[in-house]
Write a structure and sequence with these properties.
This protein is of the alpha+beta class and 141 residues long. It is 21% helix and 17% strand. It has a four-stranded antiparallel beta sheet, with helices on one face. The protein is elongated and about 95 Å long.
Length: 141
Amino acid sequence: MSVSSEPTATSAPTATSAPTATSEPTAAPATVPPEPTATLEPTATLEPTATSAPAVSEAHTGERAIVLTEDLHARPASALAQAAAAFTSAVTLSYGSRSVDVRSVLSLMSLGATSGQTVTLRTAGDDAAEALTALSAVLGG
């Protein structure tokens, strides 16, 4: 008996899953015209106008020059800012060529105003007179 070491061939058909080509015509892709580029034009200016701030009559403004009795450091600046928070009027303090909002402790301290220097307290609003009197007292004037 002889044994053969060669593999035997099978005659079973194998199925292939390759796609078949169709002869149907395909539609050409639709061409989309390019969109026009937009040019941005400014529509508004950022320049202030005369009507941007509410009008305050002379009766609702106040100004007082005060000679400081102590340096305007953290503690007096904080006391002034807290006192100003009780009023609705706009309150500014000027020293030299600079003017700052009194409600900001850091702005007040950045003025660098020292004892014996003259500062100008300005108020504008419905309770300007009351604010001027109370804040002047806090500054020692």
